Structure formats: C-alpha cells, structure tokens
C-alpha cells in the first residue's frame, strides 16, 4: 500500500512539474508586429521591433519582457517627416538609434495585466507601468508617452504643433 501511495505521489509531482514548466514559455517577436503612434500633427509606425518575452500566466512574477525599436525604421508616410524625425532635432537616431523597454515586474491589477519597467527614448530612461493583454499568442497594448519627458523635439525653434502626448497602439504577435 505504501508503494502505491509513493507511486501516486511521485506521479502527481511529475504531472504538476510538467504543467508548471509548460506554463512558462519563452517567446520571440514575430515580424507581423505593429507599433503605431499618433498625436497632433504626427502619426506613423515603427517598422522594426525585436524582443524577448518570458510569460508565465500562472506566476506573472516569473515573467520578463524586453523590446527594442529601431528609430530609423520610423515611417510617417512622408519622406521629409521621416528625415526630420530621425534628425538631431527630434529622435537623433545617429546618437540614440534605439528605443528600449525592459521590464522589472509583471503583475495583474483589477483583472488587467500590467508591466512595469524602464523605457529609454533619446537617451532618457523613465520608469513606466504599461497595461497589456495577452491572447492568441499576441500582446496588445494602448498607452501614451510624453515626448518632452524624453527630450524629444525640445530644441529651440521646434514646432509647437506636435503634441507632447503621443499615443501608442502596439500589437505584438509572438512565436515560440
């Protein structure tokens, strides 16, 4: 009888371990992603996004998200605006070629998943908490940044037409 109990216990532990291991998945960003931005007098997309995602929906504290956007991949639909966007008057892509986000914490608050981490734009790093959803192997998020907090477009004589608040609409399909 003891042998049967031990076998049952061992089997249950193995089964539980298998489910625990399976619930933590390392993901890669698919090239079908979408990083759209918009504000007054500006809208477009970043075409190049790379990242790594470790997501454990059973234990969000074990999750990590990191993303890198190539600033030179900006596309506003206007060649001249693209040139201005990567110039030293705005993003200064030569000096600051990437936008990065690295998580420090993933958690759920009021049935909404959120990721806290450091966003670095134009050489300025700020802690941000960003809401997101995850379903069908896809991360989706809508949030905004204040471009002046990151010193984007702050040079004297820059257009006041572009809003400080820039809205982002992010869709990131993931692959295993």
UniProtKB/TrEMBL annotation:
List the source organism.
Brumimicrobium aurantiacum
This chain's protein is named YceI family protein
Q: What InterPro entries does its record include? A: Lipid/polyisoprenoid-bd_YceI, TTHA0802/YceI-like_sf
Query: Where's the Lipid/polyisoprenoid-binding YceI-like domain?
Result: 26-175
Taxon lineage? Bacteria, Pseudomonadati, Bacteroidota, Flavobacteriia, Flavobacteriales
